[in-house]
Structures are given as C-alpha cells and as structure tokens.
Design brief:
By secondary structure, the protein is an all-alpha fold. The protein contains nine helices and no strands. It has one domain: Glycerol uptake facilitator protein. It is 70% helix and 0% strand. It starts with a helix and ends with a helix. Its main location: membrane.
Amino acid sequence: MTKKLVAEFIGTFWLVLGGCGSAVLACSFPEFGIGFTGVAFAFGLTVLTMAFAIGHISGCHLNPAVSIGLFVGGRFSAKELIPYIISQVLGGMLAAYVLYTIASGREGFVAGGFAANGFGEHSPGGYSMAAVILCEVVMTFMFLIIILGSTDERAPKGLAPIAIGLGLTLIHLISIPVSNTSVNPARSTSQVLFADAWAAQQLWVFWVAPIAGAVLAGLVYKGFFEKQE
C-alpha cells in the first residue's frame, strides 16, 4: 500500500506542476507563450508520462474523481479509496507550493487566480455556474469512460496511457475557456492555497461536479459495457 500511495503522491505532484505550471509560467509569456493549446497538451503529457512510469504500481489515478469512478465501476477497492485521495491532494499541494516558490522568483509576480478553476467572472470566458457544472460533469464522465474502456481487459494492450493522455488533452482543449478545466478535485484544491480568496469560495463546484461525472461513468460502464461473467 505504501508504494502505491507514494506513487500517487509523486504522480499528482507532476500533474499539478506540469499542468498548472505551464499555465502560470508559460501560457502568456510575452511573444512566446504556449497559450491554451500548450496548457492542454501539458496536462495530457503529465498523465501520459506518469501512466507509463507508475501505472504498474498504483494504477496512476492522480485524481480523486478517477479513484471514485473506478470504485463505483468495480475496479478499485473501498479500503484504498480514502488513502489514495489523501495522497493525491497532498501531492498536488506540494506541487502548488513549488510552483508558487518558482513563480515568486520573478520580480513583480502576483499570484492572482494562480490557474485556479472558477465560474462567473472567474471563468476565463465568463461562463455561468450552471454552464461550468454541466461542463465539468460531462468532461469528467467522458474521461472516466476513456479510462474504464482503455484499461478493460478486452482493450488493446499497452495503449491505455496514450488514450488517457490524449483524452485529457482534448478535454482541456474544449473546457479551458469554460472553467480553466478541473475534472480533478486534487488539482483544483492545490491552487486555492495561493490564489485569491474567490478560488476557495468556488472550490466546492470542482469537487461536486467531477465526482458526480465520475460516479455516473462508473455506473454506466459497469451496467452496459463491463464484461459479463
């Protein structure tokens, strides 16, 4: 169990540092910024690389919603659920601290939103809370369907990390303008440590909506697509 928890901690650390780090440090860098597309690929690459690195150790969940969705889908044990979530949240928090420390090394840096997720005036595109909730539920639902399907024993072997990484990239390409893309409560929680106060006030949405989408996906996959014994 300890090896799995350490793997989840390191993996989530990398997801937050790579994904949110690209948003904070490189997204709008003058003349050479990577933009939304670059951030989307950064998030996808963190999952892709960690899936190959630690997938055989912990399953590479890196996300409380993923762990819960896999549990509902019958792929993950109840006794490991809470320890996994704690490890993921702590790994994300450490990454946010490292990112903030790096970013603070630039004169005049102000954390501001710090790549936090938000709705209303704090949505990149000004989307309403209802729109953000719907987006987060649907995107997390599809993410879990991709995970459950690509890791099914009937799926092509060895390709799941690619499908999952590219799936997360596509999700970000769609939804960064809507919510800054969460689909991951650990990622959302990590950023509120250093962002402006509004981020903590809106955090509940980025726990409730992703978990709801993940639970629905677990039920759908288990009910309709899982191999019958």
